[in-house]
Design brief:
This protein has ten helices and four strands. By secondary structure, the chain is of the alpha+beta class. Strands 1-4-2-3 form a four-stranded antiparallel sheet, with helices on one face. Strand 2 and strand 3 (51-52) form a beta hairpin.
Length: 196
């Protein structure tokens, strides 16, 4: 399932069919073993394309309705970890060191969306900011739906970076911090301009 989503349906069918015949009540525990082992790399996606937070209830739902969930193994490296922790801190997410455990990117994506939603309407809609700031708004708007895709792939691209690497992570974070500050201060700059 590396770099390509694969449905859980064939796996559940194979494991619960003869000669294996593993009971459906045992399958969530078996899935949990691999979810924990590959916790840095696993993304589970539902049929709507949303990343799911991995917990016991999700594993039960996968066994009951395997056709509704897909698995993807992601590449994970030190640069992505550094970027994710800094991203979480920048947007005020308190559990930043846990972002890559139990697929908590959904929580991080929601935090980025919450920041966007909390911006003044002018900041959310103005065209008087840089193109990169406009693109950051677009990513923030969808960050809670497909957080890994939005934050680790799309966000670097809109800021002018193909991927997150050890060589560019500091520059990427600098660009992101600048765009966020630009949006955070857009209304204040307008007020200053109007007062002049």
């Amino acid at each position: 399932a590396k770099e390509e989503q694969r449905s859980f349906e064939p796996l559940v069918r194979l494991l619960s069919a003869p000669p294996y015949g593993i009971r459906k009540g045992v399958l969530p525990a078996l899935l949990a073993i691999y979810a924990v082992k590959y916790k840095h790399y696993v993304t589970i996606v539902d049929t709507a394309g949303r990343d799911c937070q991995i917990d016991a209830a999700l594993l039960d739902r996968i066994v009951d309705m395997p056709e509704k969930y897909s698995l993807k193994l992601e590449d994970w490296n030190e640069a992505l970890e550094q970027f994710t922790v800094a991203l979480a801190k920048l947007f005020g997410w308190q559990r930043c060191a846990e972002a890559f455990f139990s697929n908590q990117f959904a929580d991080l994506g929601y935090e980025v969306f919450r920041w966007f939603s909390g911006l003044p309407r002018y900041s959310r809609e103005t065209g008087s900011v840089s193109n990169q700031a406009i693109m950051l708004r677009r990513i923030a708007r969808i960050a809670s739906q497909r957080p890994r895709q939005a934050l680790l792939r799309d966000l670097p691209k809109v800021l002018g970076f193909r991927t997150v690497t050890q060589d560019n992570v500091d520059l990427l974070l600098e660009a992101l911090t600048s765009c966020k500050a630009e949006l955070d201060g857009a209304l204040a700059r307008l007020r200053v301009q109007m007062a002049s």
